[in-house]
Amino acid sequence: MKKSPAIKAITISISAFMLFSSVGITANAAEIDSNTKSHKNFQINTYSNSDNTQADLPTSFSSVDYNIVNPPKDQRYNDCWIYSSLSVLETKLLKSGFTANNFSTEHMNLWATTKSNGKGWLRSITSDGYAFTALGYLSSWQGGIEQSDFESFADEYNPDTDLSSLVNYGATAIKYLDNCSREEIKQEIMDNGSIYAAYSHSTFYENSDRTAYFCPKGSPKATGHAIAIVGWDDDFAKENFKTANGILPENNGAWLVKNSWGNYNSLNGYFWMSYEDAYLFSSTFRYNYAIEDVTPITDDIKLMQNEIYGATYEFNYIDYDSVTYLNLFNFSEGYNKLDSVMFESTAKNSDYEIYYVPAENKTPVSDESKWTLLSTGTVPYSGYLNIDTNDFDLPVTYGAIAVKISKNEASDKNTIGVGEWLNKSNGQFAFINETKKGESYIYKDGKMTDILDWYKAERDDDLGGTFVIKAITNKTGLAVTMLGDIDLNNKLDVLDVTDLQMAISGGSNLTAVQKLNADTDQNNEINVNDVTQLQIMISDKN
Fold this sequence. Notes:
The protein is α+β, with helices and mostly antiparallel strands. It folds into three domains: 10-33 and 43-290, Cysteine proteinases (Cathepsin B, Chain A, Alpha-Beta Complex); 299-474, Jelly Rolls; 494-541, no CATH class. It has nine helices and 28 strands. The strands form six sheets. Strands 15, 17, 18, 19, 21, 25 and 26 form a seven-stranded antiparallel beta sheet that branches. Helix 1 (80-95) packs across helix 3 (131-139).
């Protein structure tokens, strides 16, 4: 496989520090020290559920004070990234008035291990993990799952098992915070309850009772550790921090951090981190993020997606002013109101256009005059976006959702997230995607190209990737009951062939559902080709 001519490194926060991209991973693994524990109470008060503007930001704030932060847990392995990400989800849900008691870290850890086909994340439960492993889990609605719901499956669970039916709430928008100002981060905490972050941890930089942490700029990088930030205090005295190498912070102020080491200190597992810490919110560890929006999941909502692992890389290979990315879906399952479109992109400030693109022979059409424009705008932030599509009526057949991203004066990026294989610096795979032909397409120069064909032709890459474009759909009640079942008796036989032939010749009229069932080749037309396909289906069945 061809290597990228310019390596775009993605820095990941985990229990042991790692730096990697889709062309290589360099690892400097080290385990977090075991922790002694003391038990004293962390004081809790109360909090209003309303969003605030930056002008209203107080000098101090704590989501813990408002009973929307579940108590710290004690991580078992190198899985701080799991505990922190689920904590952020729990707090977002609690702030939104939903229920989140105890999401299963065990399920997320097992989900993020290797599937029986050798694909997915190539790690064990004791291995390190990555921030965007958690992002894939959350954005594809694989979790959180309450531990009480998971326990009945725990003994027999493996990564091949789909437990998404146990997920009650789905993340619909996630914002990366790596280039945000301190005030913007405070606002995110106010609006969402907490944020996911990571820093370089060494016990050398802790104060004596492990309640305050400060690593001065210029200090060597140590072990990466993921946390949840749940508040701040602008007046937290700089003298509370340990003088490291003769250095204290220049100013007062600190973040309130929820850790994942149990009740190991006098703040019951919380600590304060200086605003001036060298590695917090630096480019070293990515992605730091906030969950911007969530939705209850019911039987009336369905997330259409071609991947469940999210974006492992940014598709940045085409240097055009604009590129159109498409995912093909089968919209014949009865969920035909398009509520919104989710996609991942780091092309902040670039322009986007979202289209519904009909398909012929299960391939998106290249004729743009047949496309339906659903939404336009500017990418507001880097991360997972959720764009309203005003309940667009999806045809009950195969069709594609297209996202066109264009450069402009404010941004020179046209990238979109892609689930792409990752390998380590030693050549071993860290992640293998499950991309199939007929799932993702690129449209440029008036030509529609399957992404696997593009990867093979342009990069000599047989694994390719899948674009992170998802459709949130609502149930309509109109759906195929059984493809080919014209007489609606729940079986396929020669009588269905006869009924279809009569309808085509004008001898009878079909109901709406019968028409859906009659389109056996699913090209949105009913003709003699459907009769031929139906005869093949009956022959194969017999």
